[in-house]
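Section 5.1 Outputs to date
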Amino acid sequence: MFSLDLRSLAVFRIAWGLTLIADLIFRWSTLREMYTDEGFFTRQMSFDYLESLVGPAWSSMFWSLYWISGTPEFATTLFVVTGLLAALLVLGCWTRVVTVGLFILLVSLHYRNPLVMTSGDLYFKTLLLWAIFLPLGQVWSWDAWRSGRKVANQLTPVVTLATAGLIFQIITMYFFTGISKLNEVWFQGDAMWYVLRLDIYITPFGRALLEYPFLLKLTSWLTLFFEVAWIWTLLVPWKNDWFRWINIVVFASFHIGIAMAMSIGLFPVICLLPWLALLPGYVWPGNAEPAPRRFASWIELSTVGRLTRLICILLLILTVVWNVGNIKHPTTHRLQISAIQRVVFGCGMDQHFQMFDKPPDHNPWFVYEADLKDGTRLDLLTGGEITSQRPESIREIFPTFHWRKIHRNLVSSKLEFLRQPLADYWVRQWNERHGPEQQVVSLRLVCYMEEIGPDYNEMNRVSLIWGSFKSEQSEPGSLFDQMLKQNGDLPF
């Protein structure tokens, strides 16, 4: 059940490193805006956000190398170092040390700007945590070449608490995601209808699926079944490779489908990574030895091996306790006591898998309605005409997934204090790129929300002013004011 082939682990190592390089490339265009004090999310705002989550004690739990300095040069240096270490991981150079360094840098990156974090990022990080204790560099690596080890002599599958931990982490991610979905919307089969109405993420293919209501219901029910029940077949001891293959095919198809229907960054790719480590050895060239049928005994282990085993046991316990504590129930939530929080966040092993547990019931879009000094009125986000009508594709308005994620997160009333800084940032960016006659003299950032679901009606619409800007030369009034007057000062 818990054996992993060394060649499969090597492929997992290479794919993980390449995925991190791709992640850094996608984040590169927003480095100044989201990871420096010159952008929208300064270090002070990061501190304030963390304090709003866990209180004044946040500083004893969270840490980030990006907090040392807020300059673009420092953030750029950390990005470059992370990319270089990821390349070394792909090549299998000093694998163990590089993996530890990458974990420190990845946790630092995530804690610097939690607003753009997804469940995929959390999963990505926990996979790397388990990878620290796995023999990723024993084959198909520079480490193996340097040591003179022959591949033929290194094909015995490995069975340790770390391999068991990786497999159990996969089960945990899907199972607790499924548990969070045990509610009426998913039971009735309506969940996918809500999800595919969230235009900020949906692709044309996903929008086309709305024409097949029965398929959406079936997908909702199958998602529950495979996440809550079927994933446990990974622990069936009889013909275990059969069940691995079925799980690989099912969940690979599931995530490829998500990638086709939703533009949610690297989330589908990240979810595919650990399945590479579970590929049976016979898919690779060469004849592997039979997998060992037991863990090494305590006596057989070295001092380092015993310490590693103790750490893996602790990680397994914390993984279970933390995920059970994430269940939205008064009894289970008590498990997230302060001491456990400090250990979990301090080790960078926090995980929260509740993807679309309660599908959104509103579809948001955003208008930066601005008045320029030369009299022009436009939407700063699109550069086009100001309108209250929903865009044909909300997703395509934003330059990157991370900008979509930030706007989507700020819909939450808990993050209301971050909305005005967002409006100020876009004004500052516009003014820096344009001449004196095109400077913004007034702006209103308006969030529109439209009800979605099986009873979708585009007339069920409300709006909320998130933030405003007004210079001394600006004139009163905005499109929002005019529409309020036309509608009797009622929300529309």
